[in-house]
Design a protein that fits this description.
The protein has one domain: Orthogonal Bundle (MetI-like fold), CATH 1.10.3720. The longest helix has 35 residues. It is globular and about 70 Å long. Helix 1 crosses helix 13, helix 3 packs parallel to helix 7 and helix 7 runs antiparallel to helix 10. By secondary structure, the protein is mainly alpha-helical.
Length: 286
C-alpha cells in the first residue's frame, strides 16, 4: 500500500520535472522563436550560443561570482559558526541576526543593497556628508566593480545558511576530542584546520552543492541590484535566458542556454552524489 500511495507523486515528478526538462532539450534543437515549432536545426542554436559575446561574458561573470560567493560563504559561515560555538551570551539572538538575511528573497536583498550602494543615497553619500568628501562606493555604477557588488549582496544573504550547517556539525563533535586537543597542547587554529574541518566534510559538501546551484540560477538578485549593468558588466546566464525567452522572443536560443545551465548543475551534483554513495559503500564494506 505504501508503494501504491507513492505512484501519483512519481507520475507528477516524471511529467512535471523530467518531462519538462526533456521538452526543453527538444526545443533547444529547433528554430523556435516566439512559439515552439518542430523545425529542427540540429546544434545550430548551440553554435550560435557559444559564438555570442554576451553569453561568453555571462559565463565569465558566473565563474567570478561562483568562486567568490562559494569561498566567501564557506569562510564567513565557518567563522560565524565557530564564534557561536563558544557558548557566548545571547547566542539565540546572534544566531537569529546572522540567519535572518537568508529568510529574505533575493529581490529584497537586491533592493536593500541597491539603496546602500546608490552613490546618491547610500553609503557613499553618508560618508561624504560626514566629511569624507573623497570617499567612493559606487560599485553598482562601475563597470569594473558591478559583479563584485552582486557578490557582496549574495554573501550577506547566504552566509547564514552555511553558518547553520557548520554550527550543527560543530555541535555534533565529541567533547573528548577537544579535551584531547588541550592535553596534547595543540593550538586551537591547528585543531580546527587539521581535525575539525575534515570532520565537517559532509556539511561542507552540502553547502558547496547548495551554493553552486544558487550560483547557476542567480537571476532575481542581479535584476534587483544592477539589472545586468552597467551595460553587460554583471550579466549572468539566467538573465541571458530570461531576456531571450521573453524580450527577444528566441525560444530556441533561450532553451539551449537553459540546457547548458542544466549540464553545469549536473556536473556539480554528479560528483557529490557519486562520492557520497561510494563513500557510504566503502564505510559499509569496512
Amino acid at each position: 500500500m505504501a508503494t501504491l500511495s507513492l505512484i501519483p507523486s512519481a507520475i507528477l515528478i516524471l511529467v512535471a520535472y523530467v518531462g519538462t526538462m526533456l521538452w526543453t532539450v527538444n526545443i533547444s534543437f529547433t528554430a523556435s522563436r516566439s512559439l515552439p515549432v518542430a523545425d529542427y536545426v540540429g546544434f545550430g542554436n548551440y553554435v550560435r550560443l557559444f559564438g555570442s559575446a554576451r553569453w561568453q561574458t555571462s559565463l565569465e561573470h558566473m565563474a567570478i561570482f561562483g568562486v567568490l560567493f562559494i569561498a566567501g560563504c564557506l569562510t564567513l559561515g565557518f567563522l560565524l559558526a565557530v564564534f557561536l560555538d563558544q557558548k557566548i551570551r545571547g547566542e539565540d539572538g546572534w544566531r537569529t541576526i546572522f540567519l535572518y538575511p537568508y529568510a529574505m528573497s533575493f529581490i529584497v536583498t537586491g533592493l536593500i543593497w541597491q539603496w546602500m550602494m546608490n552613490p546618491a543615497l547610500g553609503i557613499q553619500k553618508t560618508m561624504r556628508d560626514l566629511g569624507w568628501e573623497s570617499f567612493t562606493f559606487d560599485w553598482t555604477a562601475n563597470r569594473d566593480m558591478a559583479i563584485y557588488a552582486v557578490v557582496i549582496a549574495a554573501l550577506w544573504q547566504s552566509s547564514g545558511l552555511v553558518m547553520a550547517l557548520m554550527l550543527a556539525g560543530l555541535r555534533g563533535i565529541d567533547e573528548e576530542i577537544w579535551k584531547a586537543v588541550k592535553v596534547d597542547g595543540i593550538p586551537v587554529w591547528r585543531a580546527y584546520v587539521s581535525i575539525i574541518l575534515p570532520m565537517l566534510a559532509p556539511m561542507i559538501g552540502t553547502a558547496v552543492v547548495l551554493l553552486s546551484i544558487s550560483t547557476v540560477k542567480v537571476y532575481d538578485l542581479v535584476v534587483a541590484l544592477t539589472n545586468g549593468g552597467p551595460g553587460s558588466a554583471s550579466e549572468v546566464p539566467a538573465k541571458f535566458v530570461m531576456d531571450y525567452l521573453f524580450q527577444r522572443a528566441n525560444i530556441g536560443l533561450a532553451t539551449s542556454a537553459s540546457v547548458i545551465m542544466l549540464l553545469i548543475v549536473l556536473a556539480v551534483l554528479g560528483p557529490f552524489f557519486y562520492f557520497k554513495t561510494y563513500g557510504a559503500r566503502r564505510r559499509t564494506a569496512a
